[in-house]
Amino acid sequence: MMFFLKLSLLNLLRRYGRTTLSMVSVIVGVLVIILGRGTIDGLRESIIRGQIDAMTGHVTALPADYPTAGLSHPLENLLTLDDATTEWLNTNTVGWTQRLLFAPRVVSGMDAVRVRAIGYCPETDTRVFPRGDWNVQGTIPETDSDGILLTRGIARTLSLNKGDSVIVETRTHAGALNALQVPVAGTVSTGNPAIDGLVVFVPMPLAESLVRPNGQFSHLSLLLNRRADADNAAAQLQSLLGNTARTTTWEIEAAPGLEAQDIRQTFLDIIAMALLIMAAAGIANTVLMAAYERIREIGTLRALGLTRRGVMGLFVTEGFVMGLIGSIIGAAAGAWMTWKYSIQGIDMTSFVEQVGASDMMQDLPFSTMLYMNFSVSIIVIAIIVGVTVATVSSFYPAMVASSRNPADATRG
Q1: Nearest to 220, CA basis, from 46, 44, 66, 366
Q2: What is the Cα–Cα distance from 272 to 276, expressed in whole angstroms?
Q3: Which range (28-32, 260-264, 351-355) has the least confidence?
């Protein structure tokens, strides 16, 4: 084996230019596999975290007939908590909070815009929805006199800043029209395009004054020890709330976004395989050309006692070496890049803002800070795939080389 390896290395170095070109496709193919998987897995986790941290928690309960999309947030059939449900929530969750979603108009001078208002409980909201990635200019309001917190998109549309005053118009729980003039406590960028484009945060005391729900709420969100327990917790909560409510989980709500990532992953895998097929063709051509260029050498080796299997082993080893070196180089580059961006992340804010301007991503919850997924198993699989493709592609040239008659090869 060492004889084959040494001889293969000498032969490959003898035509190093052609060898290098043959390995480029292997390097790029392996790199695409690792970076593609790392990016898509990172996007999947970003969508999951965006859904959990900003939209639903692990489980959310809402009225049974509540719409699933758009800016329609009806206030007719709201939820209440009884003692048994409250006790279950306190016992079985890491944290839970109530929210009241409604769709008011925010009026500033002659301008007005319809928004999604999230009425939140200042005391409990952060137990479920973290704010570590929020960039707040001003303060987060807690009382009705503090006013409202505008997300970046709304603030930009109405040209508002901290300290400005706006009128909030909405329907109450009973259906009457209500309007209050309130201050802008601050503006916020949450890093989630589904929030930043059309949401206004309203502390629950002010939401009570605007909507007058009499202590009722539209959404109950909870956080568990493990997100994998969401289905079981949702079933238990559903049994406690009865038919007036329905429960949903982060997995159900994030499914459309995750399915899109699966499609992207399929396309990336196709691209990677196309590159590896190109690599196979290049390596097969390199080995085949080497076989024709080394006819006399093959005849001499056969005359000295090297069997057909030995000749095949020699050329297959050359393909294996090219695949191994190319795969290691591609894997090293891919591993370094995925490791780097799994730690420091990639800020996609500017990209999201450009795409968000056309409303393409307004309803897609995810974090604009992308962290790639560093996976040792994917790196190992990519190396195995690269080496296998290169090795298999060298079998036909090896068969051609080994089929020559020793005497004819020597005379050639």
Answers
A1: 66
A2: 6
A3: 351-355
CA atoms within 13 A on the CB side of 383: 15
Contact 173, 212 (CB under 8 A): yes
Strand-strand pairing, 148-151 and 177-189: parallel
* C-alpha to C-alpha distance for 127 and 91, rounded to whole angstroms: 14
Please answer whether residues 152 and 187 qualify as being in contact, where contact means their C-beta atoms are separated by less than 8 angstroms.
Answer: yes
Residue 228 has pLDDT above 80, yes or no: yes
3-state SS assignment for residue 324: helix
Closest CA to 218 of 244, 190, 251: 244
In whole angstroms, give the CA distance from residue 190 to residue 370: 14
Question: In sequence order, what are the residues at sequence separation of 6 or more whose Cβ sits closer than 8 angstroms to the Cβ of residue 273?
Answer: 29
Tokens of 332: 């090293």
267 token code pair: 């396309």
Least confidently predicted of 104-113, 138-147, 345-354: 345-354
The pLDDT value recorded for residue 233 is 96
| % of the chain beyond a pLDDT of 70 | 83
Contact between residue 295 and residue 403 where contact means Cβ atoms under 8 Å apart? no
In the DSSP assignment, the letter for residue 307 is -
Q: Cβ(319)–Cβ(325) under 8 Å?
A: no
Q: Is the pLDDT of residue 409 over 60?
A: no
pTM for the complete prediction? 0.75
- Residue 42 backbone dihedrals phi, psi, to 5 degrees: -65, -40
Question: Model confidence at 143, in pLDDT bands (50, 70, 90)?
Answer: very high
Q: 359 falls in which pLDDT band (50, 70, 90)?
A: very low
- Over 80: is that where the pLDDT of 220 sits? yes
pLDDT for position 204: 96
Q: Are 192 and 48 in contact (CB under 8 A)?
A: no
Q: Within 13 A of 321's CA, how many CA atoms are on the CB side?
A: 23
Percentage of residues in the chain having pLDDT higher than 90: 43
| Those residues with Cβ within 8 angstroms of residue 263's Cβ, 6 or more apart along the chain or in another chain | none
Q: With contact defined as beta carbons under 8 Å apart, do 7 and 314 qualify? A: yes
For the chain, domain boundaries: 2-51+256-411, 59-223
101 in Cβ contact with 218 (< 8 Å): yes
